[in-house]
Amino acid sequence: MRTLDDTDRQILRLLLEDARRPYSDIADNVGLSAPAVSDRVERLREIGVIRRFTLDVNRSLLREGSPMLVELDVRPAAAESVAKALTALDRVDHVFRTADARVVFRAPIRDGDVTALLDGVVDLEDIRDIDANLVVDDEWTPGLGEAELALSCVECGNTVTSEGESARFDDELYHFCCDSCLSNFEARYERLQSGV
């Protein structure tokens, strides 16, 4: 699978609506058999389009602080580490890192004290400014649109098109833009394996 077709997109949309939807229900919606849907979902997982099946918790029904959208102006060298540290926090819902060294996240904050949440998690010296706003309503609706598959060749970095190749080495699937890149990778892989 090096391209997405309309059936793949429809399967993804149905799973975005409800990740626990039975394959038989999806099959009825897309005109395939349940095993065919299962095969397509497995291929989408294998290439990384589907990373995981998750749960959307309505935090407004839980008492753990006020929901806040927080924007941090971070030293550029620390933006990635700050974003990773926040992502690791159980109470943080979403983390975004922008090109201009800002980290935006959503989390319930007790007593509106963002600094207390950050202290001990990140180096406060890396934070230049904090802008926090109370969230009164939110809706997370991930969409798909008419997305196309954008695999990169592991050999040269070019985009893998429908003419590309895929191959498995040690149970890991790799994608190549052309037969030449596959051959180069395979030769190097075999040299490394024989040298071990």
Question: Which secondary structure elements does this structure contain, and how are they paired or packed?
Answer:
Blueprint: H1 6-17, H2 23-30, H3 34-46, E1 66-74, H4 79-87, E2 94-97, E3 102-109, H5 114-118, E4 127-134, E5 165-169, E6 172-176, H6 179-195
Antiparallel strand pairs: 1-3, 1-4, 2-3, 5-6
Helix pairs in contact: 2-3
Properties at a glance:
Alpha-Beta Plaits; 196 residues; single chain; 3 domains; alpha+beta; 20% strand; Ribosomal Protein L24e, Chain: T; two-stranded antiparallel sheet; Arc Repressor Mutant, subunit A
Distance between the termini: 32 Å
Under CATH, the topology of the largest domain can be stated as Alpha-Beta Plaits
Order of helices and strands: HHHEHEEHEEEH
The overall average pLDDT, rounded, is 89
Radius of gyration, whole Å: 22 Å
Strand content: 15-25%
Count, helices: 6
Shape: globular
CATH superfamily of the largest domain: Lrp/AsnC effector binding domain/regulation of amino acid metabolism (RAM) domain
**What is the CATH top level name of the largest domain?**
Alpha Beta
Helix content: 25-40%
Main beta sheet strand tally, sense and closure: 4 strands, antiparallel
Count of the domains: 3
Strand order of the largest sheet: 2-3-1-4
CATH architecture of the largest domain, by name, is: 2-Layer Sandwich
SS elements, strand count: 6
Low-confidence stretches: none
What structural class do helix, strand and pairing data support? alpha+beta
Pfam families: HTH_AsnC-type (PF13404), TRASH_HVO_1752_C (PF24273)
Organism: Haloprofundus marisrubri
Domain HTH asnC-type: 4-67
InterPro entries: ArsR-like_HTH, AsnC-type_HTH_dom, HTH-Siroheme_Decarb, TRASH_dom, TRASH_HVO_1752, Tscrpt_reg_AsnC-like, Tscrpt_reg_HTH_AsnC-type_CS, WH-like_DNA-bd_sf
